[in-house]
Amino acid sequence: MANEKEVILSVKDLEVTFGSGKKTFTAVQDVNFDVYKGETFSLVGESGSGKTTIGRAIMRINPATKGEIYFKNKKISGKISKDLDKWVVRNIQMVFQDPAASLNERATVDYIVSEGIYNFHLYENEEDRQRKVVKAITEVGLLEEHLTRYPHEFSGGQRQRIGIARAMIMDPTLLIADEPISALDVSIRAQVLNLLKKFQKEKDLTIVFIAHDLSVVRFISDRIAVIHKGRIVELAETEELFKNSLHPYTKSLLSAVPMPDPQIEKNKQLIVYDPSQHDYSVDKPSFQEIKPGHFIWANEKEMEEYRKKIR
Question: Which of 2, 16, 57, 232 has its CA 20 to 30 A from that of 50?
Fold first, then answer.
């Protein structure tokens, strides 16, 4: 199944470090995954696991220390030409986690949404620019009269819609959504997720969705990669991951997903992940495919155990 799909983004042996010398901190290491055209690929992990760093490395905000990132078969990590850099910005857009911090408070919504098409001159004349901006803002469920206002006049959910409009007006091929709903009320979350799904269907958009909440990504994702301390520990199709999770860290994340039934919620057992259960002193782990499309970070001894559990 995977072979028939077109790979739009490929991350190979990615490592991202911060600082230098003794203060070097490795945020992400040994990260490998492909994203297929038209799918939603989710990166899930707790705060500080490195998922946003991966998203920012794809966007070229955080430089990759090692490894390579390919987008549409072009290498976009490391030193690249100015033209290629512009092409990346044009085709990969990001929706940021905090809708308040990512919008310029001193600019009107009209200017914020137009900024990308101004920079790339993606309009014929002022009339065409206005038409594009109105279309972008109404597509996210806001009104034309909102264009003259400033970000502080909007709620969190509306600000996030402005952020989505700003990204979508560029007509990107790939959208990186970095926890776009974590700062929003629960009732607004579904609206924003539905909006992303709508764009995906209508515009053949590919989404890399970053989140810490597995119950949210189940609704929106085709495949999920679970990240722990900068490393992908398990990667599988969504239903496969929920039904047949193998890595103990994935199991602990799944056990923390709230249940709608209060009785089940009260009686459920939380699984606490203990990294010391892995003995990697001699038998070193690697990222291996345990069954088609299902990958896991494990050594040979653990692989044998996991194989017994496979359904």
Answer: 2
